[in-house]
Amino acid sequence: MKPSIIVHGGAWDIPDDLVEAHLKGCETAAERGYDGLVNGESAVQAVVEAVAVMEDDPVFDAGVGSFLNQSGQVELDAMVMEGSSLGSGAVGALQHMRNPIRIARKVLEDTSFSLLVGDGALRFAVEKGFEPCTEEDLLVGHQLEDYREFLRTGVLGTREFFEGGCDTVGACAIDTDGRVASATSTGGIPRKPAGRVGDSPLVGCGAYADDQAGAASATGWGEKIMAVLLAKTAIDALRLHGDPAEACTEAVTTMKSRVDGLGGIIMVDSKGTIGYHHNTPRMAFGFVEGKTGRRKKAIRA
Ligand code: GLY
User: Fold this and answer.
1) Count of CB atoms within 10 A of residue 288's CB?
2) Active-site hit among 28, 134, 153, 168
3) Phi, psi (5° rounding) for residue 93?
4) DSSP labels for 40-100?
5) Ligand 1: which residues within 6 Å by Cβ?
6) How far is residue 135 from each of residues 68, 120, 272, measured CA to CA in Å?
7) pLDDT per residue as tens digits for the range 227-268
8) Ligand 1 center to residue 29 CA distance, Å?
9) Which atom, in ligand 1's list, is nearest to the CA of 223?
10) Active-site residue, 168 included
11) What is the β-pairing status of strands 87-94 and 115-117?
């Protein structure tokens, strides 16, 4: 079958001066994933590579450029899920690694576990041959300024973060064999307490994938996403309605009405149709839908 991929670069009030960089980053990631898919890569490989492109791009809150926590550290969460076996691999509160999504993939493929956190996740990564980096390698200037501002002024409310800024990245794909996968990666919310793990590495919250329905990846306020299992809720709505756009809208509407959450979701279904929705001012996303040839990068649904 014709493959498809959709990526997101976070759902928040993306400032005008960062719009171009977000569009470019999403387009580059979607095209990287799609090129791999048309050349026979699996959906898992495509979503991991697409997300790694965004982790390497300092404009996004994932990998390099992630928000600092209250202790001035970068702690990363990431997950990949594949829809044939419902298998998943994830890392939480992982420090000193540039590409947590690649380590999440190792958890999926090389272990019988789903989620490794903190020091254990770091030890696992080093055992698998990943080179640790310094805190400074992951830092970009505006995150350091943001952290210094926090030290001066104290913690902002979580709602303000999402009305202001959060940038989780994610990807969903279907490959030429009809297998789906999703991946999500984040530095989490700015100025989170040390050890806080969000929705992104949790099955059914930050991502879900099932070959019998489709794959979804979420972005936004983690605690609210967890409360409604946003990615699984979206896939359940897809099973019911059969339309990815409708399913994404229903899931985000449920999150808003039940817990007043803010965020967004992207999806590809088992026929290769793309869907997306958000209730934040903006969400950066990009996709290539193989069966229709539709290609899009946008900052708003
Ligand atoms: N959705 C990202 C986070 O809350 O950590």
Assistant:
1) 26
2) 168
3) 50, 45
4) T--HHHHHHHHHHHHHTSTTSSSSTTPPP-TTS---EEEEEEETTTTEEEEEEEE-S-S-H
5) 168, 186, 188-189, 198-200, 219-222
6) 10, 18, 39
7) 999 999 999 999 999 999 999 999 999 999 999 999 999 999
8) 20
9) 4
10) yes
11) parallel
Mutate to test the pocket of ligand 1, among 166, 196, 217, 265 (most ligand atoms within 8 A of CB): 166
Q: How far apart are CA 169 and CA 47, in angstroms?
A: 11
Q: What is the pLDDT of residue 154?
A: 67
Query: What's the whole-model pTM score?
Result: 0.94
CATH of the structural domain 4-291, one choice from 2.102.10.10, 3.40.50.720, 2.60.40.1190, 3.60.20.30: 3.60.20.30
Domain assignments of the chain as residue spans, ordered by start? 4-291
Q: Alpha-carbon distance 74 to 50, whole Å?
A: 21
What count of other Cβ atoms lies within 10 Å of the Cβ of residue 290? 21
Query: Position of tokens 């569009």?
Result: 23
- Cα of 176 from ligand 1 centre, angstroms: 31
Taking the centre of ligand 1 as the mean of its atom positions, its distance from the CA of residue 244, in whole angstroms, is 22
